[in-house]
Specification:
This protein is an alpha+beta fold. The protein is built from 17 helices and ten strands. Helix 7 runs antiparallel to helix 11. The structure holds protoporphyrin IX containing FE. Protoporphyrin IX containing FE binds next to helix 4, helix 11 and helix 16.
């Protein structure tokens, strides 16, 4: 006999659970469903089965342990209509995806990222200087830091200080991705037939949005790639992901080489699309933490003073001697869920779990935001407490590291995570070591703690806030000035 479907709210004729879909903060709305129905909630949205996972354990069992079944993506009509089919994150599970993933991994695997650290460190040095010179523009400096780092790494392109066309390109691209790919945003995702609506039909706003997005999507994919190819032809290219991928191609026959070139182009653009804003969102949250919880900053600085001292910036190798700084990073990853719902995984065949049937084609959503607020793991979850990861002055291995879920699961786990981890460590430790970040003062001279609010979307950012940034001491200022050569 057939197993029952997992529990969930009652389904209406035709539309199913359309009205149970989140209105704005999907993390909180989905968590409410899990609180009512348990760790697995089954929804049917216009015929699309969905499974909402409410705990890290269940997500790990399905998406990691059964990764061979749960690694497809839903083929959203919106992805094709809007020209984002080159994006590795959106590709269906299969050989084409695997070849892209392999190309990506070749450049961002744990050994390869060691070779990228000096570039990351250079960019961080430059960032500290900009913060010193024009601290009120810190939002722009953060954006520039990650856009510049990833452009350098992916294409060997050095981007300019202000109003850079590449930064604009990635901003527009990510805005389009965020808008178009939020699950449930457009009906067309659930009803592929709608993609044939002519553009002028009422209610076909999505088609106009998609047409606009297509321009953005192709610019993002093609313009930096063409520039880096030009530089290679002229012999002026700096070593980068593009040069490495093109190098690999030389050994292949011509038809294979043509495909490999598409893969190289898509992979570099994917690095650029995936790498700039995710890390940015986390570092914005880190500055928000600094401006909101002064005691965290003081403790971290005391640790850095003892271990690193006034004569140099922190290095990646200092990481193991800086447990408090590491705990601050873990707590940032937990407290601010960069990708609140991760990437939705699609199941490729019927599966059984805990006595339930999970039908083929189900879209499985791991509510990473909810996992980071699971009181069984993290008591008082809205509070920012780095100490929760420490025991006797060392990292406590019994507390789940939020990186175990913040980067997703299984064969689809974030392939940029090693690169992200070094970027985050170098940025956080260098800022803490040299700068003091405080809340702005009001007219009466009282500190105004920023409001703590985050945006909704595929990637979540803190709402814009202000803070005051100054060098910690004169030695820190001198150290920052001495570290401003963009040597690579
Ligand atoms: C704080 C930083 C970051 C976070 C929290 C993050 C998080 C994630 C998550 C949750 C996923 C979905 C995984 C899944 O489906 O289970 C993902 C996928 C992905 N990420 Fe990241 N990411 C970060 C940084 C980066 C960076 C720096 C890059 C590139 C250099 C990158 C490239 C990608 C790519 C290409 C995918 C798609 C993988 C696939 O579908 O096979 N990410 N990331």
């Amino acid at each position: 006999s057939r197993l029952p479907l997992p529990p969930g709210p009652r389904r209406l004729p035709f539309v199913g659970n359309l009205f149970d879909m989140p209105k704005q903060y999907a993390g909180a709305d989905f968590r409410a469903l899990n609180e009512t129905y348990g760790d697995m909630v089954y929804l049917d949205v216009l015929g699309q089965p969905m499974l909402i996972l409410g705990s890290h354990d269940v997500a790990f069992d399905l998406l990691d342990r059964r990764s061979a079944l749960y690694s497809d993506r839903v083929q959203s009509a919106m992805v094709d209509l809007s020209g984002f089919d080159w994006l590795l994150a959106a590709m269906p599970y299969g050989p084409w995806w695997r070849r892209h993933r392999r190309a990506f991994h070749q450049y961002f695997n744990p050994n390869a990222v060691v070779g990228l650290r000096s570039m990351q460190r250079n960019q961080v040095g430059h960032f500290l200087n900009r913060l010193l010179n024009t601290p009120d523009d810190f939002y722009q400096h953060m954006r520039h830091l990650f856009a510049a780092t990833i452009m350098r790494v992916a294409y060997g392109i050095q981007i300019s200080e202000k109003d850079d066309e590449y930064m604009k390109m990635v901003e527009d691209g990510l805005a389009a991705i965020n808008l178009l790919l939020s699950p449930g945003k457009y009906l067309v995702e659930q009803l592929p037939i709608l993609r044939f609506l002519p553009k002028w039909m009422p209610g076909a706003q999505f088609r106009r949005d998609a047409a606009d997005a297509k321009v953005v999507a192709y610019n993002m994919r093609d313009i930096p790639w063409m520039r880096s190819l030009e530089a290679m032809h002229q012999g002026t290219a700096s070593a980068s992901m593009s040069t490495a991928l093109m190098e690999r191609m030389r050994t292949l026959g011509s038809s294979e080489a043509e495909e490999e070139q598409l893969i190289a182009r898509n992979t570099a653009a994917t690095a650029y699309a995936g790498g700039a804003d995710t890390t940015l969102a986390l570092i914005q949250a880190f500055f928000l933490v600094l401006a909101s919880f002064p005691e965290v900053q003081e403790k971290a600085q005391a640790e850095l003073d003892t271990i690193v001292g006034p004569h140099r910036l922190p290095e990646f190798n200092d990481r193991d001697s800086l447990p408090y700084v590491c705990a601050v990073i873990k707590e940032c990853m937990r407290w601010h869920a960069v990708a609140p719902l991760g990437g939705a995984h699609r199941l490729i065949q019927d599966d059984e779990y805990r006595g339930y049937l999970i039908p083929k084609g189900t879209l499985v959503i791991a509510n990473l935001w909810a996992f980071s607020r699971d009181e069984r793991r993290y008591p008082d979850p809205e509070a920012f407490i780095p100490e929760r990861f420490l025991k006797d002055g060392k990292l406590n291995p019994n507390i789940t590291d939020p990186s175990e879920f913040a980067f997703g699961y299984g064969r689809r786990i974030c392939p940029g995570l090693h690169f992200a981890e070094s970027s985050i460590f170098l940025t956080v430790s260098s800022v803490l070591h040299t700068l003091s970040v405080t809340p702005p003062l009001d007219a009466a001279g009282k500190p105004q703690r920023p409001k703590i609010k985050t945006t909704a979307g595929v990637i979540s950012y803190p709402e814009p806030f202000k803070c005051v940034i100054k060098p910690r001491a004169s030695w820190a200022e001198a150290l920052i000035r001495a570290n401003d050569q963009l040597t690579e």
